[in-house]
Amino acid sequence: MYDVIVVGSGFSAIAVTCNLIEQLPASAKIAVIGDDPGFGRGTAYRTELYLHRLNVPAGRMSLLPHHPDDFVDWLKSRGRRLQAGDFASRSDYGLYVRDTLARLLRKRDGRCRVDLIKAKAAGCVDRYSSTLAFHLGNGDEITGKNVVLCLGVGNATLPVDLEGVPASARSRIIENPWRLSWLRRVAPSDAVCILGSGLTMIDQVLALRAHGHSGRIDVLSRRGLAPLGHASKPQVPLPIDVQMLPDTISGILKILRAKSRAAADWRGVMDGLRPATQALWQRLSSEERARFLRHALPWWNIHRHRVAPDVFDRFEKLVTEGTVRFHAGFLKSLGAEEGRLAASYRVRATRTIAEISADWLVNCTGMERAGISHSPLLKEMSRFHLIAPDPLGLGIEVNAASEVIAPSRISPARLFAVGALTAGQFWEITAVPDIRVQAKAVVEEIAANG
């Protein structure tokens, strides 16, 4: 039996675990369940390519919010010549997260017990009227008085089936681009078609160029929009009073556009809105949240989730010279013609059907939206009414303290969620600056109530 069980092996799980080590007494016992061999690094921070950068300056990326200079100090100790306003590599950040956990685990005096259990949680049930029990893939069972779900999301699947693609051509469809070994098979002059135009697309374009690719790259997405860049010099955030904003998406956008036109740089408006995003989201009705997801989300993403200035300049040069070409439309089918892949799509706002011919097709449609369907554990917990889906499909229902709203759970054991699973309540909860604050708050709640 454990005082706390952490389910997951990505950044959220490590942030929660580090806070637990710092805050719980020596008598406490913690179990961390995860089967990812890259424990704590996750997909994003496992890449080794130096051009794959963080999208947030190093000064705001410390794992523990009460040690704000921790990451910058770690960079300096490793001889990295970066300042708080610079954008570090994602590989370095993954190493920093690993090192921070290892440093806390090396502490012997006064530290609580932490068991890292390499297994997959297969099911969860109320047990003994006081705990939650997890059945593990290795046949074991563990129970806990407090549970924190830190399950992330996987890559989104291709939006069409592959029935029309011969088996011989399917090896040139890359469904998970983060397995970078596929890059070694690409010839310098090969034509590449990328589905999706977000941050993952930029990462893959730069990875291709770093591996010697010089051919054409066609990018297909529903709106043909790509992320914008951070300013080369940090902008002063423009303070925004959320309480003065209207309660409709159309009204909010009208005011933000006016502020952006009046500002020296629109980024100052976005950066000023950032600390208030969660409060603004929680003010919106379910109808307005749904309206945002339908109509405003793509524009929010490209302005909000920006790339490092030098990375943006490299990418923009490829666009300007015509190496990277954008297409706005809806993918209809995939096939093969004369030894090449053929992506058929409906051009946006028309009935016209067009086609992109390429040697490779890469799925960069991003991460799937957090939810229950992607996880066997969450589906099992839903079946027993231990959790409930968010009405908009943004993870599971939690309250303002990140505690899961369980419709029929009987035990007094407390169940929390951290990270993407709580997007329905907090919306902006996928970036490190937000998750680390949430993780600390959840652990404080657990520590205060035993």
Structure description:
The protein is α/β, with parallel strands linked by helices and 450 residues long. The protein has 3 domains: 2-154 and 368-448, FAD/NAD(P)-binding domain (3-Layer(bba) Sandwich); 167-228 and 307-363, FAD/NAD(P)-binding domain (3-Layer(bba) Sandwich); 242-304, no CATH class. It contains 12 helices and 14 strands. Strands 1, 2, 3, 4, 5, 6 and 14 form a 7-stranded mixed beta sheet that branches. It has a 7-stranded mixed beta sheet with strand order 7-13-8-9-10-11-12.
**Regarding CATH, which class of the largest domain?**
Alpha Beta
Helix content: 25-40%
Under the CATH scheme, the architecture of the largest domain is 3-Layer(bba) Sandwich
Class of secondary structure makeup: alpha/beta
DSSP E strands, number: 14
Helix/strand layout:
Blueprint: E1 2-7, H1 11-23, E2 29-33, H2 70-77, H3 90-106, E3 113-117, E4 121-127, E5 131-136, E6 141-149, E7 173-174, E8 192-195, H4 199-210, E9 217-221, H5 249-262, H6 266-273, H7 277-283, H8 286-304, H9 309-320, E10 324-337, E11 340-347, E12 353-358, E13 360-363, H10 376-383, E14 414-417, H11 423-426, H12 432-448
Parallel strand pairs: 1-2, 1-6, 2-3, 6-14, 7-13, 8-9, 8-13, 9-10
Antiparallel strand pairs: 4-5, 5-6, 10-11, 11-12
Helix pairs in contact: 1-3, 1-12, 5-6
Task: Fill in the keyword field for this structure.
globular; alpha/beta; FAD/NAD(P)-binding domain; 31% helix; 7-stranded mixed β-sheet
